[in-house]
Amino acid sequence: xxxxxxxxxxxxxxxxxxxxxxxxxxxxxxxxxxxxxxxxxxxxxxxxxxxxxxxxxxxxxxxxxxxxxxxxxxxxxxxxxxxxxxxxxxxxxxxxxxxxxxxxxxxxxxxxxxxxxxxxxxxxxxxxxxxxxxxxxxxxxxxxxxxxxxxxxxxxxxxxxxxxxxxxxxxxxxxxxxxxxxxxxxxxxxxxxxxxxxxxxxxxxxxxxxxxxxxxxxxxxxxxxxxxxxxxxxxxxxxxxxxxxxxxxxxxxxxxxxxxxxxxxxxxxxxxxxxxxx
Length: 278
Hints:
Blueprint: H1 6-16, H2 21-28, H3 32-40, H4 47-56, H5 61-66, H6 73-82, H7 87-110, H8 130-135, E1 151-161, E2 166-167, E3 175-179, E4 189-195, E5 208-212, E6 222-227, E7 232-240, E8 245-248, E9 257-259, E10 265-275
Parallel strand pairs: 1-4
Antiparallel strand pairs: 1-3, 2-7, 4-5, 5-10, 6-7, 6-10, 7-8, 8-9
Helix pairs in contact: 2-3
């Protein structure tokens, strides 16, 4: 049975045509919110909306519903040829493919998950403050190390709230060592001490969190977020909504916080490591 891929195919064709969700919605007579729900898979379009999209995208119903063939031409040829080989030769093909996959995975590990903080996107959403990102200065030369060194001293820049936002403290407060292999030489890192209980039990009060300095994180990632007003910082799981940034605590006793156009904030890093001193 074919897997239904309608939400991702709608988004694929929308992007292929260079339409925003609002522009796409206007062409179908739908709200931006409705389009967003289709793409997220929360709601499904009506039959008449589906037919309109088939015509609008100049495609066929099967492609819109299920996507293109799961097998590429190359993969089809590999399967076709390998199926004619005797088992010992099939194992050679399998070993070759396995080695290629390992190499590919190693290459992906080397690639950055997010862009460096000194490369701020031009199209920041309204709830992200460019001013914060431009003024966020990392200590220089702190991360220089030789490849054969085992440990690197990373600066402690103060405290960050795990609860209500806390005034950001960027003063240098010593260093903590981190294994060199754990760090990327192309990144900036710093430690923050957690002041609060909203991220417990995963991140306890008083623990040290290693932050990789980046201007954005993927949904569900724990990020350090700095609010523009009063320069308040907090540590939360970050989710990108249509018109705001939703900040979620692990401790369910704490309510969600929101960065909005009226209360802008900026992600200044993602949490990558937690340490506790006994």
